[in-house]
Specification:
alpha/beta, 8-stranded mixed beta sheet
Length: 435
């Protein structure tokens, strides 16, 4: 091999090495690029996964938070519901002779459910529903009697419970119409046939009076102390001194002691008071004095019965800076009396609220729903109606037209109620609106 050939060979080898170095360098660059791409892909994938995981965690956190907020809201609503109590009360449940006749059935049974069907829904929906059972009960139908010395059949009490009442007051001027037997029959009936009913105002013996003079009803998150007093009894049926325990008669000294005890055992004190001159919508002085006394003792709510007609209602200012809700009269509930005002009556409706943090109870709203006691000619088809359901046709058919020449139309009924349905504010000692 000559020198020229050797030079060409060396050049080829040198170029080959150069190409190999370039190829290796290119391979290295490609590997590095590929590694970079792989690294970028790994980073991007990791980032995507992190984003996905973060999003998933955020979604899960949002779902958890939503569930927690929903549960907290439900708990709050349940707590507020348990700290809100609705109550209704009606006036005198009086079974006159015509109603007693209406209650007799062809089969020989007695039933008075028909009286309450039109207001049953309101009674049942309230947490607590009170009625003034004006008269005592007798066990024997042969002893049943209407005015003037009433004796009502047990089926009347059954009808009240079917209607939804769970509080019954019986301290009235008629409570001793049938003597001690009437008291014993009534107490035994309620305690035996309807033991879940809160019975107020009458007692079978001294121990019963001491134990049940004040009743503390526990409902939802409330403890409500209740008492029931009557101004007195009818002259024809006086209460013997040795049976004074039978009926809770209003006596300031005893009432003050009761209220003091009641306040220490409850959140709210309610007094059902049988008082007032009959058949006048004006507030009489004796009633006002009793109301003032109850307010001075710190009673929260007072509901009056007896006048047979409705009276004003509203807030009574108390010396301690608080207020007492007072209904001066709800009128009759069931009766067949023969004057128009005696047939136009009220249902007290109010709501109690307890502050979740402080435990203080207030009356959040209150009203009086107008009712009409209806009966046809001959005092048949007796029933209580809400004024909102009463019609012109019913007003025309009302049996009151036999006994009164005064106008009795749907419009005249509405006009009668108008001044009584707006709550008032009463100053201590005042028998008039303070405004």
């Amino acid at each position: 091999m000559n020198q020229e050939e050797r030079a060409r060979l060396e050049e080829r080898q040198r170029q080959k090495k150069i190409r190999e170095r370039r190829r290796k360098k290119q391979v290295r660059r490609q590997k590095m690029l590929l590694a970079g791409i792989i690294m970028i892909i790994v980073i991007i994938t990791a980032g995507v996964n992190i984003v996905k995981n973060n999003r998933k965690k955020a979604e899960q956190a949002a779902v958890t938070k939503a569930k927690q907020e929903k549960l907290a809201k439900q708990k709050q609503e349940e707590l507020e519901k348990e700290n809100t109590l609705s109550m209704i009360a009606v006036g005198d449940n009086l079974y006159h002779d015509a109603i007693l006749e209406e209650g007799k059935t062809d089969s020989g049974d007695w039933n008075f459910d028909f009286l309450y069907q039109n207001v049953k829904k309101e009674i049942e929906e309230a947490d607590l529903s009170a009625v003034n059972q004006e008269t005592v009960f007798v066990n024997n139908h042969d002893e049943v009697a209407g005015y003037p010395e009433f004796a009502s059949p047990l089926e009347g009490g059954d009808a009240l419970i079917k209607a939804g009442f769970n509080i019954v007051t019986q301290a009235s001027n008629h409570a001793y119409d049938k003597g001690k037997a009437g008291i014993l029959n009534s107490v035994t009936f309620w305690r035996t046939s309807h033991p879940n009913v809160t019975l107020l105002g009458i007692h079978k013996d001294q121990q019963d009076e001491e134990r049940n003079r004040i009743q503390v009803v526990e409902k939802k998150n409330f403890k409500i102390a209740m008492m029931n007093y009557t101004f007195g009894l009818n002259e024809a049926t006086p209460l013997p001194e040795d049976e004074s325990y039978s009926i809770d008669v209003f006596d300031e000294e005893q009432v003050a002691k009761d209220i003091e005890t009641a306040k220490s055992e409850s959140d709210v004190v309610i007094v059902f008071l049988h008082t007032g001159l009959e058949d006048t919508t004006d507030i009489d002085e004796d009633t006002e004095n009793r109301i003032d006394f109850l307010a001075s003792q710190g009673v929260d709510i007072t509901i009056c019965s007896h006048p047979h007609v409705i009276r004003a209602f509203g807030m009574k200012e108390r010396a301690d800076g608080g207020q007492m809700l007072v209904y001066y009269s709800l009128g009759n509930f069931v009766s067949t009396q023969e004057a128009i005002p005696e047939l136009l009556e009220g249902m007290a409706k109010f709501t109690l609220k307890k502050d979740i943090e402080t435990g203080k109870v207030t009356v959040s709203d209150y009203s009086m729903q107008p009712l009409v006691m209806h009966y046809d000619t001959g005092k048949t088809n007796c029933a209580v109606y809400k004024l909102s359901d009463y019609t012109e046709e019913l007003a025309k058919a009302h049996g009151i037209h036999e006994y009164s020449e005064e106008e009795f139309t749907l419009e005249s009924i509405q006009e009668f109620f108008a001044p009584f349905l707006t709550p008032q504010t009463f100053a201590p000692g005042s028998q008039k609106n303070s405004d």
